[in-house]
Amino acid sequence: MQGETSRAGLPTVFVRLAGCPLRCRWCDTTYSFQGGETITLSALLARVADYGVPTVCVTGGEPLAQKGCLPLLTALCDAGYSVSLETSGALDVGKVDPRVSRIVDIKPPESGESARNRWENIVHLTQRDEIKFVLANRADYEWAREIIAARQLDRVCPVLLSPVQGELPPAQLAGWILADRLPVRMQVQLHKILWGNTPGT
Q1: d(Cα 62, Cα 22) in Å, to the nearest integer?
Q2: What pLDDT, in 10s, does the model give residues 46-67?
Q3: Domains recognised in the chain with CATH numbers
Q4: Nearest 5 degrees, angle CA 74-CA 75-CA 77?
Q5: Is 40 in a helix, a strand, or coil?
Q6: Which phi and psi (to 5°) does residue 145 adopt?
Q7: Rg of the Cα trace of the chain?
Q8: pTM, whole model, 2 decimals?
Q9: CB 3.0 to 4.6 Å from 184: which of 151, 159, 190, 195, for a disulfide?
Q10: d(C-alpha 81, C-alpha 189), whole Å
């Protein structure tokens, strides 16, 4: 079940690629940094098809760190799937198949990785894409609010704000958004509400 983005609630096949050059302080998928299995593209497509679900999310780690990611995205689109890509925003999204919905995670200061934000990615985004901020506290929120205004991100594509679980109460973030009339969508991680913090869900 997709737990985030505008696709939240949709039955989804997740293709999680191993490896990530970032180390965000609150990363909840550290198990994907290493390991995994090598698989051919045709075998992977067959495995996805076995689920009989039309929506696919390619994620990580940082999926764009894998050289096979771009051909995989194109192959999934060619096969007729509705495809999204969850990316840290630290790597170039300009070569991603335009049929893919790119979910770009802009890293705030508390993540420890804000210096890795690749601002050049914004020019590649369209209304079919989404920008996501995961926020730990008021300082992160104010930083994000300033970035959204200065770069007019809400005119580029939908903007999503999420609280770091266990650090920023969702109701508090909701209150700030409403008070500032921020042109964003708030989201919580539906999959964690349903199943908790079990890795791989």
Answers
A1: 8
A2: 999 999 999 999 998 899 999 9
A3: 13-195 (3.20.20.70)
A4: 65
A5: coil
A6: -60, -40
A7: 16
A8: 0.90
A9: 159
A10: 23
